[in-house]
Design brief:
With 347 residues, this protein is of the alpha+beta class. Helices cover 44% and strands 15% of the residues. Strands 1, 2, 3, 4, 5, 6 and 7 form a seven-stranded mixed β-sheet that branches. Helix 2 runs antiparallel to helix 8, helix 8 packs across helix 11 and helix 9 packs across helix 11. The longest helix is centred in the N-terminal third of the chain and has 20 residues. The chain is elongated. The termini are far apart. The model has no long low-confidence stretch (mean pLDDT 95).
Length: 347
C-alpha cells in the first residue's frame, strides 16, 4: 500500500517537471504515431544521440507507413545499417504491411490492437497508445523500472519478468487519464537524464527527491537490483578484404539466423595466422600475391561475442561464389552489419 501511495504522489511533480524540462527531440515535435513508433523501435538497444541521424534519414526515404510497407528489404536494411538488431527493421515492415491491409494505412489507436502487430511488445504498445493517443496504459522499460525501484526502495530483481509485470500492473492502476503520455515520457526522461543507470544519480535535479526512499536511505548505489547475467557464447573469426581490379568481394548471408540477408566480407570461423592465408584462398579457388593485416575488432551481440581479425588480400582472379563490387557500391547500396564496418573502413 505504501508503494502505491508513493507512486500516486509522484504523478503531479513528475509531469510538471517533464513539461518544463523535456528535451527537444525530432519525434516529439508532433504526435504522429508513425514517428513515435519508429523512434521507439530505434531506441531499443540504441542511445538517443545515435538514433537521431538514423531516424531523420529513414523518414526522408520512407515518410509514410505505406512507403515502409512497400520498401525492398535490401533498401530497408541499408537504411537500418549501423543500428544493429536488424529484425527490428524487418518487423517494422511486416507491421506496416498489416497496418496497410487491416487498418487502411492508419496506425491503430488502442493498446490491444497495437500489441498484435509484429515487433510491438508491451512497452512499445504502451508508448505509442499513450503518447500518440493518450490512452492510460503504462510503458515500462529499464529506465522506468529503475526510477520506480529507487522511488519505493524496492529490492526486487527488475530482470525478473514477474517483478516487471507487478510494477506494470501497479502503474496501470495509478495512470493519470489526462496526461497519460506525458506521465510515461516523464518517467522515461527522468531515468535517462537524472535517475541514471551508470554512475551517481543526479538527485538534486530530481522532482521526486523529497519522497524517494532510495535517496532518504542512501540506497541509490544498490538499487535497482539486477541479478540475472547474460552468458554469451564466444566465437573467433577471420575476415578478408579480397580485392581484384579495384573491386571487393562480399557475400550475402543466409536468409535465417543472425544478420539474415545482410552482406558480409568473406570470413572463416576461426582466427588464422598470415601463413595460413594461402590455404584459405585455395579453398575459395583463389590465389593472392600480397596481404596485410588490417586490424582486430571485438563485437558483442545479445548472446554471442565475435573476436575478429582482418586481412586485406590482392587476388589474381575472381570467384563467382562471391559478389565483386566497387567500394562506392558497398558504401551506398549493400547493407553491411556493424561487426564488419571496422574492416570496411580499411577498403
Amino acid at each position: 500500500m505504501e508503494e502505491i501511495e508513493l507512486m500516486k504522489k509522484m504523478r503531479k511533480p513528475i509531469i510538471e517537471w517533464y513539461q518544463k524540462n523535456k528535451r527537444e527531440l525530432p519525434w516529439r515535435k508532433e504526435k504522429n504515431p508513425y514517428y513515435i513508433w519508429l523512434s521507439e523501435i530505434m531506441l531499443q538497444q540504441t542511445r538517443i544521440e545515435a538514433v537521431k541521424q538514423y531516424y531523420e534519414r529513414f523518414l526522408r526515404q520512407l515518410p509514410t507507413i505505406k512507403d515502409l510497407a512497400e520498401v525492398e528489404e535490401e533498401e530497408l536494411l541499408k537504411l537500418w545499417e549501423g543500428l544493429g538488431y536488424y529484425n527490428r527493421a524487418r518487423n517494422l515492415k511486416k507491421a506496416a504491411q498489416v497496418i496497410q491491409e487491416k487498418y487502411n494505412g492508419q496506425m491503430p489507436k488502442h493498446y490491444n490492437e497495437l500489441i498484435e502487430l509484429p515487433g510491438i511488445g508491451e512497452y512499445t504498445a504502451g508508448a505509442i497508445s499513450s503518447i500518440a493517443y493518450n490512452e492510460p496504459v503504462p510503458a515500462v522499460d529499464g529506465n522506468v523500472l529503475r526510477v520506480i525501484s529507487r522511488l519505493v526502495g524496492s529490492k526486487k530483481d527488475i530482470l525478473d519478468s514477474k517483478i516487471k509485470k507487478e510494477f506494470t500492473q501497479t502503474l496501470k492502476g495509478i495512470m493519470p487519464k489526462k496526461y497519460a503520455g506525458d506521465f510515461n515520457e516523464a518517467l522515461m526522461e527522468l531515468g535517462e537524464i537524472v535517475c541514471i543507470p551508470n554512475g551517481e544519480p543526479l538527485c538534486k535535479k530530481c522532482p521526486l527527491q523529497e519522497i524517494c526512499v532510495a535517496k532518504k536511505e542512501n540506497l541509490t548505489a544498490e538499487l535497482p537490483v539486477r541479478k540475472q547475467k547474460i552468458k554469451r557464447r564466444k566465437e573467433e573469426k577471420t575476415v578478408f578484404l579480397l580485392e581484384f581490379e579495384n573491386k571487393i568481394a562480399i557475400r550475402k548471408r543466409e536468409n535465417t539466423g543472425l544478420l539474415a540477408n545482410m552482406y558480409e566480407f568473406p570470413n572463416v570461423n576461426k582466427k588464422i595466422a598470415r601463413k595460413e592465408i594461402e590455404t584459405i584462398l585455395q579453398n575459395w579457388c583463389l590465389t593472392g600475391n600480397y596481404n596485410e593485416k588490417i586490424g582486430t575488432h571485438h563485437h558483442i551481440f545479445s548472446h554471442i561475442e565475435w573476436d575478429m581479425i582482418g586481412y586485406k588480400v590482392q587476388v589474381d582472379s575472381i570467384n563467382k561464389e562471391f559478389i565483386w563490387v566497387n567500394k562506392e557500391e558497398i558504401l551506398k547500396k549493400y547493407p553491411i552489419p556493424g561487426a564488419f564496418v571496422p574492416f570496411r573502413e580499411k577498403m
